[in-house]
Amino acid sequence: MAEAHQLSQEAHDRLAAEFEDLTTRGRIDIARKIETARELGDLSENGDYHAAKEEQGKMEGRILHLESILNKAEIVELSAGGADVVAPGTIVAVVYEGDDEPERMLVGSIEEQRDDVLVVSPGSPLGEALLGSAVGDTVSFEAPGGTLAVEVVAIER
Predict the structure, then answer these.
(1) How far apart are CA 124 and CA 139, in angstroms?
(2) Are 97 and 135 in a shared domain?
């Protein structure tokens, strides 16, 4: 069976609203664009028609992607306040071995992406290494360039 997508309630609601919008208003709008382009004549040399069909394909791909995520979604409850250990949905600050500046990252689905933090999947080598770690822990993981180590310096929800 496919792996569940762990999402916060906020991300789930946002994706469900996007899905609803694309399957209703989005499909109607693209159908109108295609119809308008068809009225322009010869479809073989009709740039508007081909652009509308390409837009329709991309939109339908996004609809299928959203449907898959929503069907396999597992809502992760985030507790208020701080956190003792890294879990899906937490934001963790880490310092790579040899670096001085911490990097903040959210351990979760790419659909949780925000402007202020990087996103690392819980199933990635770094994400797996971070899960269950606490502030002060140093964890190692295999990267394409070899083994890397990071120290957990802060955890927040």
Answers:
(1) 14
(2) yes
**Residue 83 domain-assigned (yes or no):** no
Same domain, 143 and 95: yes
Q: Residue 55 domain-assigned?
A: yes
Residue 83 has pLDDT above 70, yes or no: no
Can you tell me which residue has the tokens 């569940």?
4
Rounded distance, CA 130 to CA 120, Å?
10
Same-domain pairing of 131 and 107:
yes
Whether 62 has a pLDDT exceeding 90, the answer reads: yes
Which helix H or strand E contains 123, and what residues bound it? none
Task: Determine what percent of the chain is predicted with pLDDT higher than 70.
Answer: 95
What's the pLDDT tens digit per position in 88-107?
888 899 999 888 899 999 88
Question: Do the Cβ atoms of 5 and 89 come closer than 8 Å?
Answer: no
Contact 123, 6 (CB under 8 A): no
Q: What distance in Å separates the CA atoms of residue 113 and residue 80, rounded to the nearest whole number? A: 20
Q: The whole model's pTM is what?
A: 0.71
Quote the domain boundaries for residue 49.
5-75
Q: Own/partner pairs for 128-134, CB < 8 Å, 24+ apart?
A: 130/86, 130/92, 130/94, 131/86, 131/87, 131/88, 131/107, 132/85, 132/86, 132/87, 133/85, 133/86, 134/84, 134/85, 134/86
